[in-house]
Amino acid sequence: MGVNISESGKVWATSNAVLKFTQFIKTMKKVLLLLTAVCGLSASSFAQSSDGGKFSIGVEAGLPVGDLKNVSNFIIGGSLKYDHPIAEGTFITGSAGFSSIQGKEATTPFGTVKVGNTSVVPVKAGIKYFLAENFYGEAQAGAAFFTQSGGGTAFAYAPGIGYSFGGGLDAGVRYEAWTKNGSTLSQVGLRVGYSF
């Protein structure tokens, strides 16, 4: 009696999907724990400051540059950010987010392959300085946690500029890079956020 290959393929696909879902849940638990810690620390800082800081939630989109553009056309995600004033026009920042690198078809010597999507959880801290009334420069650094098995952690850095519109709306453009073992994945990103 032989093994039905189509049935074993279904079992492998199902177990692979369960494994990916389990890894996703573990990563989301870490992200929620981290966001809870950031919110708690930020709330504590807010309570101690007469000026107070501001949270913002934002939608992010990025265009891959460098080697990353060979396997992806687009990055989409979101983030939670906190800005705390430390001097006139100067803020320390903390952010945590989720980015999905959208894979594309890539041509290899062996044919065309579809590169799968990859998820990254960037966590960064930095400084924001207002150069003019609503125009600012910002620099952040931290870690980028890759959610797939064996993805590990990369050093993240992101210099950028932005503009704060009235009513809590904010838009910023940045160059963001994730570096690990001599390789760098980078993007030009846009974040549109709402402060509260």
TrEMBL record:
Any Pfam family hit: OMP_b-brl
Q: Where is the Outer membrane protein beta-barrel domain?
A: 34-196
Tell me where the signal peptide lies.
Answer: 1-47
For this protein, the record's InterPro entries field holds:
Beta-barrel_OMP, OMP/PagP_B-barrel
* Statement: the UniProt record of this protein carries the keyword Cytoplasm: no
Its keywords, alphabetically, are: Signal
Identification of the protein by name: Outer membrane protein beta-barrel domain-containing protein
Give the organism, scientific name: Mucilaginibacter terrigena
